[in-house]
Design the sequence.
């Protein structure tokens, strides 16, 4: 695992954007796996700036998103579909039909999960997967559990995730209780993984995930056995790490 310790969130975002931008330059028709949440916002902002300066071209890029809440329509401002369009897709020259967010509105949830896996396979797999880290160690919405769930699936969100994500909603009662997420195998199949983490709130879980035992109780710990992982984290997030 490569580790980059950055001064702060801004520095983390620029470093992550640099790595993504290198991927796009080296392979213009690459498949990016994308994440939502507050962690990648600065990264997307930086990518948009570079696109506007004509330093980046998304015209051949395809993207697949990690996860989506169940039951939120694309027009709902809290849906990950909305987030991605607002913060990245509408601001760069990516083709609309080359961006894929799991379909949280499909009543046939099994089909929605299978469709997402099929899309990733059809695209030939993910070249670079961007991840954030949940405070409880989740990646995507793979919550702490007794076993790793392999493929894209529907998940019951844990109390701690609902609480952590309620900051984006008016009322905690509005936070969906279920989501679709890529599974652990889906994520681990990506050629490269880039995980970004910031803030002292995540210091404990960073230490457990990357220096503790590999266990489904801390889903991100599985990344320790991936062949090409880059962790970009700020000083606060790495403050308990033995480095
Ligand atoms: C959310 C998302 C994850 C994200 C994580 C961290 O629940 N499903 O994909 O990485 O939690 O979020 P944040 O970056 O806002 O701390």
Sequence:
């Amino acid at each position: 695992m490569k580790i980059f310790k950055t001064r702060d969130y801004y520095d983390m975002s620029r470093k992550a954007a640099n790595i993504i931008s290198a991927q796009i330059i080296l392979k213009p028709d690459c498949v990016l796996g994308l994440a939502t949440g507050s962690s990648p916002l600065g990264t997307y902002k930086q990518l948009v700036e570079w696109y506007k300066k004509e330093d980046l071209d998304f015209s051949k890029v395809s993207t697949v998103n990690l996860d989506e809440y169940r039951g939120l329509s694309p027009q709902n401002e809290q849906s990950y579909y909305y987030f991605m369009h607002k913060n990245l897709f509408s601001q760069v020259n990516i083709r609309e039909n080359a961006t894929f967010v799991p379909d949280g509105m499909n009543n046939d949830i099994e089909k929605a999960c299978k469709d997402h896996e099929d899309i990733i396979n059809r695209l030939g797999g993910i070249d670079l997967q961007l991840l954030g880290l949940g405070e409880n160690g989740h990646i995507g919405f793979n919550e702490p559990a007794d076993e790793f769930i392999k493929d894209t699936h529907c998940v019951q969100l844990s109390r701690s995730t609902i609480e952590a994500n309620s900051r984006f909603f008016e009322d905690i009662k509005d936070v969906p209780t279920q989501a679709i997420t890529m599974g652990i195998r889906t994520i681990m199949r990506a050629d490269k993984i880039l995980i970004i983490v910031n803030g002292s709130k995540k210091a404990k879980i960073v230490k457990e995930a990357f220096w503790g035992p590999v266990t489904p109780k801390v889903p991100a710990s599985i990344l320790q056995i991936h062949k090409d992982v880059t962790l970009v984290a700020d000083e606060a997030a790495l403050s308990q790490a033995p480095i």
Observations:
- The pocket of GLP is lined by residues 35-39, 66-67, 132, 134, 140-141, 161, 165 (CB under 6 Å).
- The first strand starts at residue 2 and ends at 6.
- The radius of gyration is 17 Å.
- The beta strands are 2-6, 31-34, 62-65, 67-69, 99-100, 128-131, 153-156, 178-181, 192-197, 229-234.
